[in-house]
Write a structure and sequence with these properties.
Blueprint (H helix, E strand, L loop, with lengths): L1 H4 L7 H55 L2 E7 L2 E9 L10 E12 L4 E7 L14 E7 L6 E3 L2 E2 L6 E8 L10 E8 L12 E2 L5
Antiparallel strand pairs: 1-2, 2-3, 3-4, 4-5, 6-8, 7-10, 8-9
C-alpha cells in the first residue's frame, strides 16, 4: 500500500486521447440536441405568430364586411383584393358613416411564394409603398388566389355575402404546415334582394 501511494505515474497519452474522443462525441450530441430544440422553438413561435395574425385579420375583415353596403372582389391596382363600400345609413355599431375600405394581397417574395395582407382607406395608389394609410394585417400567406370571392348575383330575400379564405405557412415549401381559415361573411348593411330569381350584385368603384 505504501508503494502504491507513493506512485507518481499519471494517465497515458492513449488514455487521454480516448477520453477526449468520448467527450467530443457526447458534447457534439448535446449540442445537436440544443440546436434542434432552439430551432423547433423558433419555428413554433413563427407559426404561432402567423396564425395569430391571420385570426386577427379574419376578425378585422369580418367587421368591415358587416359594415359594408356593398363589396366586390377585384384587382386593386395590380393586387388581388376586396373593395368595400361602407355607407352606414342603418346606424350599425361602430361602422363609419361613409368610407371605402380596400384589402389587398401583396406579393412579398417569389421563391418561395409569400404574400402579405394589407388594409387601406386610400383612394389613390392603394396598398402601394406610397399609400400612407395602408396597414399590414397578416403575413406569410401562401397564395393570392381566391382569398376574397364575391358572387355575381344575390339570391332573393338575401343580403350580399363575401367569401374569405386565408392560408398561411412560415414554411411554404411543404403543404403539411399550412394553416387555413375560411368563412362566408354577410354584408349586413347591404340591400336585401327582393327580385324573384335574384339580383345583380353591386359593384364598388
Amino acid at each position: 500500500m505504501r508503494r502504491l501511494r507513493s506512485d507518481q505515474r499519471g494517465y497515458t497519452l492513449t488514455e487521454l486521447l480516448v477520453v477526449m474522443a468520448v467527450l467530443g462525441v457526447i458534447v457534439t450530441a448535446l449540442t445537436s440536441i440544443f440546436v434542434s430544440g432552439s430551432n423547433a422553438e423558433l419555428d413554433l413561435n413563427r407559426r404561432f405568430q402567423a396564425q395569430q395574425e391571420v385570426r386577427l385579420a379574419l376578425d378585422t375583415v369580418r367587421g368591415d364586411i358587416h359594415c359594408a353596403a356593398a363589396g366586390q372582389a377585384k384587382t386593386i391596382g395590380t393586387y388581388p383584393g376586396l373593395k368595400l363600400a361602407i355607407n352606414n345609413t342603418s346606424g350599425l355599431g361602430n361602422c363609419a358613416t361613409a368610407a371605402t375600405v380596400s384589402w389587398c394581397v401583396v406579393q412579398v417574395s417569389t421563391t418561395p411564394s409569400r404574400y402579405a395582407l394589407y388594409r387601406s382607406t386610400a383612394t389613390t395608389n392603394i396598398c402601394t409603398s406610397s399609400d400612407t394609410s395602408r396597414l399590414l394585417v397578416a403575413d406569410y400567406l401562401t397564395t393570392a388566389t381566391n382569398v376574397f370571392t364575391t358572387a355575381a348575383t344575390v339570391a332573393q330575400n338575401s343580403l350580399q355575402t363575401i367569401g374569405v379564405d386565408f392560408r398561411v405557412s412560415v414554411n411554404p415549401t411543404t403543404t403539411r404546415d399550412i394553416y387555413e381559415l375560411s368563412d362566408t361573411i354577410v354584408a349586413r348593411n347591404s340591400t336585401r334582394c327582393t327580385t324573384s330569381g335574384g339580383c345583380t350584385a353591386p359593384t364598388v368603384s
